[in-house]
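#struct-help
A.M.: can someone run this one for me? Single chain, 134 residues.
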Amino acid sequence: MASVTFRDETATGRALEEFSLPDLPERISARELVRLRVREEVARYNASPSHSHHFRGLVQPTDAEAEAELNGYRMRTARRLDWERQADAAEAAFARNGFLLLVGDRQIEDLDTEIDLIADPVISFVKLIPLVGG
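D.P.: on it. Structure tokens below:
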């Protein structure tokens, strides 16, 4: 069994947040890793007392407003989130280059890529912000 660290980073490599999950298989697809990460962050949000109005996650929930400086998302109403819906949104965001997925020193370009968690236990996510204007 392997342990993995999920890390959110800026485009310059500065770590913003991270958390670890133990007892994962030694090899896993990038898709499964993204879904595991989203499931964990939604579970943590849903377990918080009275569901705070602030969600720090990979993708923006529906009916949430983005806050400045990548601080997460302000929820209009406190409510439970559906992790599968969030995971589907994360897969869609990956497909449209909403974030980069880095394993060790390489970028993952396909969610079906198998990842060796023993060799590369740190998975970095870099959210990409679309430019406004022309």
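A.M.: thanks! The helical segments are 30-47, 83-95.
D.P.: also worth noting: The first helix runs from residue 30 to 47.
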